[in-house]
Amino acid sequence: MDQNEEFISAAQSPTIERFEVTHTAPSNIALVKYWGKHAAQLPANASISFTLSAAHTTSKVVFEKSTTPKVAVVLEGVHTPAFEPKIEQFLDRIRLYCPFLKGYSLQIDTANTFPHSSGIASSASGMAALAMAVVSLEHTLGGIREADKTRKASFLARLGSGSAARSIEGPIVSWGEHAELPHSSDLYATKFAQSHEVFNDYHDCILIVHKGSKKVSSTLGHSLMNNHPYKDARFEQATRHMSKLVHALKKGNLESFIAVVESEALSLHAMMMTSSPYFVLMEPQTLMVIKAIWAFREETAIPVCFTLDAGANVHLLYPNQHREPVHQFIEGVLKKYCEDQFYINDRCGTGAN
Ligand code: DP6
Q1: Most CB atoms closer than 10 Å: which of 135, 153, 214, 259?
Q2: Pick from 131, 164, 191: which residue ends a domain?
Q3: Looking at the domain assignment, is residue 84 inside a domain?
Q4: What number is the average pLDDT over the span 96-100?
């Protein structure tokens, strides 16, 4: 049987008139990066992330039976048609698995806790919240068992945005088949339940060195990996990094954790700088922050490290026990590199609800 078949809903038609539900889903930050994909949102390599908590999206979704189904997106109280094609595309991709959707119009009222212009992508949290809403409707229609909801939500979220698959659960989640993760799948993410206690309540300070939306979308960046001169080496490196990181997470080996996480961030940006066309998403302040983090780690032996997503902002990761000196470091040194001195103190969280 095709593995996707198990995700086809038993609920075939829209048997209730109206359904309203609200879900919240967090953003996540990848430790081993997903960069490169094939077919219907299948990753070129496995990835693993911290699920965040402060940076999240809350969406109220109203499903209303209609013979001419439409989608309307209201962002922070303002009708925002620019987001609707992405939602339509998502609905087209998931209709096979949620046939009941064909009879419904959707009104989505959505808001992020992080400023829209902060450069933090809302696609992971936004798609995860929407996937949760679709699964809630499916459950109400009797199409899915309670025990299967989380996996289906991750499966659907992936079809909206790959990294969104990792925003349903927390605090540490992997997505993509990997030999060291027996229950891993390319189709949905799963919780990594074997981490050492030092990773309980890990912090992520998001240093907003550059506000504004990205110049190059992740979707375009992924597609540039198809003909990338270093693609095979990159996918092999990511697979090796997953093995090393899984061991570091289990053992609480922070030295090894830091080595993998920082190498992943720089490798991601190296792929961008060596693709055709090439592009650079880092800003001068990105490098200043990275160097300041290295100097602080050298001086204090406090195990802080950085990662980057597909943008200029820097994520400063550190264990809860070191929060006081690290806060002083952020206020005293790092803050000045942030646009309008803006940063977000976030930490690992438990996922969507
Ligand atoms: C660099 O999940 O945003 O953040 O599947 O095309 O929506 P699409 O891409 P997206 O890519 C995320 C890229 C990344 C790394 C990661 O989160 O693993």
Answers
A1: 153
A2: 191
A3: yes
A4: 96
